């Protein structure tokens, strides 16, 4: 008689979660792979001295918490001492460790602090309203924004206004950004674009340039693996028998369901899942649907939920027009994450 506790097979589209502003804020922490990131665990490439220089500068930035907590906020320092800028921007190409360093800085901060992607912060504002989002975040010691989006003027203006209110009350901000799509040297550096887009706040940010090669380059090639229907059904049943929680969804019904759920709730949709099975994947031609899928894949990636799928390989889900358009970089990043999620080993089921 097996001692394994039977698992669960759930229909993903039956999940229509609710989430409060406080719960959204509670999710604004580094993803699991950076839960223990530190300056000590960062491995700088000695061929690129700017990497160690960035570590040293961020460590110095992190030693400013005591000063930033003085009454009156960051700008009330003794006038004889030149105040340190309250914002720092990590400027570098793919895979040089910007997110690791951002998470390491977050771990050094005392008190209330938040870490999330640009999309997560705009989702917070969308779910709560601007005034309530400001009220929730006000008073934080540190706001970390990974992948600050530069391709949506409206959202950029919204975040600039939000950060302006928070920084004026003493909150410090650290950010990385997405290089504008189709820009010269795409995927490399974006400091000039970042500072231009947040021009009202640009004088408050110090830029730290981080040169180097993409340490993940070996993982960003290839394609996702698609299996046949019988293999998918066998895997799902075996995984459930071994005690795993598996969600199943048809691709079209998943895409339709994502349109009915606010992106801030995607994290609740996948809560507790250990594997996601998607049937009959096809190429997408609707940009709104594709962008919702990108946001959903980000949550799966952060939660490290592996995928097994049938139909078109998930790395080919975005059509050629999308890959040549304004959101190209978002789609390329999502494709890379889908490759990682669907080529890794599933929990053992033999």
UniProtKB/TrEMBL annotation:
SUPFAM superfamilies from the UniProt entry: P-loop containing nucleoside triphosphate hydrolases
Protein name as annotated: AFG1-like ATPase
Lineage, top ranks: Bacteria, Bacillati, Actinomycetota, Actinomycetes, Micrococcales
Keywords annotated in UniProt: ATP-binding, Nucleotide-binding
GO cellular component: cytoplasm
Keyword ATP-binding: yes
Xref: InterPro entries: ATPase_AFG1-like, P-loop_NTPase
GO molecular function: ATP binding; ATP hydrolysis activity
């Amino acid at each position: 008689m097996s001692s394994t506790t039977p698992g669960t097979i759930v229909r993903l589209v039956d999940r229509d979660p609710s989430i409060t502003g406080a719960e959204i804020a509670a999710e604004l922490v580094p993803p699991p792979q950076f839960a223990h990131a530190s300056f000590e665990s960062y491995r700088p490439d000695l061929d690129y001295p700017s990497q160690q220089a960035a570590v040293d500068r961020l460590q110095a930035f992190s030693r400013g918490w005591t000063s930033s907590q003085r009454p009156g906020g960051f700008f009330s320092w003794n006038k004889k001492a030149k105040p340190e800028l309250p914002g720092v921007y990590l400027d570098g190409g793919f895979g040089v460790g910007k997110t690791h360093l951002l998470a390491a800085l977050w771990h050094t901060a005392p008190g209330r602090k938040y870490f999330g992607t640009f999309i997560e912060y705009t989702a917070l504002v969308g779910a709560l309203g601007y005034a309530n989002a400001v009220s929730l975040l006000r008073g934080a010691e540190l706001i970390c924004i990974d992948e600050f989006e530069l391709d949506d003027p409206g959202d950029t203006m919204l975040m600039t206004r939000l950060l302006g209110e928070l920084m004026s009350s003493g909150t410090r901000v650290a950010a990385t950004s997405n290089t504008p799509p189709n820009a010269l040297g795409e995927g490399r550096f974006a400091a000039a674009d970042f500072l231009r887009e947040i021009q009202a706040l640009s004088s408050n940010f110090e830029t730290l340039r981080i040169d180097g090669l993409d340490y993940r380059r070996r993982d960003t090639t290839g394609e996702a693996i698609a299996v046949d229907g019988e293999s998918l059904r066998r895997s799902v049943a075996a995984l459930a028998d071994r005690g795993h929680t598996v969600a199943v969804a048809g691709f079209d019904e998943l895409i339709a369901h994502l349109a009915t759920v606010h992106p801030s709730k995607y994290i609740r949709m996948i809560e507790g899942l250990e594997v996601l099975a998607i049937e009959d994947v096809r190429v997408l031609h609707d940009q709104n649907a594709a962008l919702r899928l990108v946001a959903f894949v980000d949550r799966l990636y952060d939660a490290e939920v592996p995928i097994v799928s049938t139909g078109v390989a998930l790395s080919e889900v975005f059509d050629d027009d999308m890959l040549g358009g304004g959101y190209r970089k978002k789609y390329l990043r999502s494709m890379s994450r889908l490759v990682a999620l669907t080529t890794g080993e599933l929990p053992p089921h033999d």
